[in-house]
Amino acid sequence: TQLLEQSPQFLSIQEGENLTVYCNSSSVFSSLQWYRQEPGEGPVLLVTVVTGGEVKKLKRLTFQFGDARKDSSLHITAAQPGDTGLYLCAGGYSSSNTGKLIFGQGTTLQVKP
Amino acid sequence: EPEVTQTPSHQVTQMGQEVILRCVPISNHLYFYWYRQILGQKVEFLVSFYNNEISEKSEIFDDQFSVERPDGSNFTLKIRSTKLEDSAMYFCASSGGDRDGYTFGSGTRLTVV
């Protein structure tokens, strides 16, 4: 069974705090993607990482792919209420972004003003 | 920004009825997918489609499900005889097989009564 475990499942923090969300698997993925999903909407892609050890930054968000390509993390610096939402990681077996994705169960983030 | 369009946004159907969910992928994408998300659960892969044929399908995608690309723009998911447990959000996605990744539609909420 291909599994991607996200932790924590729920996170409630104050504005300005930092946080890290983890995504772990026993499988090796060719790519790891992070999405944000609003209620009643489809996942929206934030970033794709494909190389072991790769780090990508998107403003206050930092994404890292583990050296062995089995895990990833999303770090948010100085969280804002606008960061509130559901964050999903998804692993793919194709580095060319074709083929199925295996999704984690998601991390619900609440940032309180 | 190019987007994946899904119709209808909501569909209520009687158990045993056939439903067709429609999607218009991004025009220059070649790979098409259907995923579903039962309320409170993970996003699950159903099927991928490339070059006018199914390239991969999950265990969920049994004989009750079929996909079709009837023309150059639409991509449809048909459920032949709906069951209560088919109630879920169904997401269509497409990818161009490049670093830009996957684009998801906003989903169709299917309720089987």
List keywords for this structure.
heterodimer; A: 113 residues; mainly beta; six-stranded mixed β-sheet; five-stranded antiparallel β-sheet; 52% strand; B: 113 residues; four-stranded antiparallel β-sheet; 51% strand; globular
Number of helices of chain A: 0
Shape type of chain B: globular
State Rg of chain A.
Answer: 13 Å
Largest interface: A-B, 23 and 30 residues
- The residue-averaged pLDDT of chain B reads 94
Identify low-pLDDT runs of chain A: none
| Inertia-based shape of chain A | globular
Q: Span between N and C termini of chain B?
A: 36 Å
Counted beta strands of chain A: 11
Encode the helix/strand succession of chain A as letters.
EEEEEEEEEEE
Class based on secondary structure composition and strand pairing of chain A = mainly beta
Give the total of beta strands of chain B: 11
Tell me the quaternary state: heterodimer
Q: Provide the helix percentage of chain A.
A: under 10%
Cα end-to-end separation of chain A:
40 Å
- In terms of DSSP E residues, the strand content of chain A is over 45%
Q: Portion of residues in helices of chain B?
A: under 10%
> Biggest β-sheet of chain A, characterized?
6 strands, mixed
Which blocks of ≥5 consecutive residues of chain B have pLDDT under 50? none
SSE arrangement of chain B, N to C:
EEEEEEEEEEE
Summed up, what is this model?
The complex is a heterodimer of chains A (about 110) and B (about 110). Chain A has about 110 residues and is mainly β.
Descriptive notes:
- The complex is a heterodimer of chains A (113) and B (113).
- With 113 residues, chain A is mostly beta strands.
- Chain A contains no helices and eleven strands.
- Helix content of chain A is 0%, strand content 52%.
- Chain A is globular.
- Chain B is mostly beta strands and 113 residues long.
- Chain B is 0% helix and 51% strand.
- The model of chain B has no long low-confidence stretch (mean pLDDT 94).
- The chains are: A mainly beta (113), B mainly beta (113).
- At the A-B interface, strand 5 and strand 10 of A face strand 4, strand 5, strand 9 and strand 10 of B.
